[in-house]
Amino acid sequence: MKKKVHPKYQPATIMCACGNVVSTRSTKETINVEICSKCHPFFTGKQKFVDSEGRVDKFYKKYKNQRKG
Fold it and tell me: Shortest CA distance to 16 belongs to which of 32, 38, 30?
């Protein structure tokens, strides 16, 4: 590798808004994130699928009586 071309790769701390702190290595010293694997609904199992506008029901109603062609 050439000298003085690459940024310094150093220990870094990632801090989430929920309070979770992860230590890793990066070119930045600290990284602040809004959501992490500890608080994301997909990883916590609290994910909900919401059809708030009734799009699925609207689709079934629209195409229910049509023939297969």
Answer: 32
Total domains in the chain come to 1
Looking at the domain assignment, is residue 5 inside a domain? Answer: no
pLDDT average, residue stretch 43-65: 74
Per-residue pLDDT tens for 3-44? 889 899 999 999 999 899 999 999 999 999 998 888 887 777
Positive or negative, the CA dihedral 52, 56, 57, 58 is positive
Decide: residue 13, CB within 10 A, 0-12 exposed, 13-18 middle, 19+ buried: middle
Report if residue 27 sits inside a domain: yes
What are the backbone angles phi and psi of residue 17, rounded to the nearest 5°? -65, -25
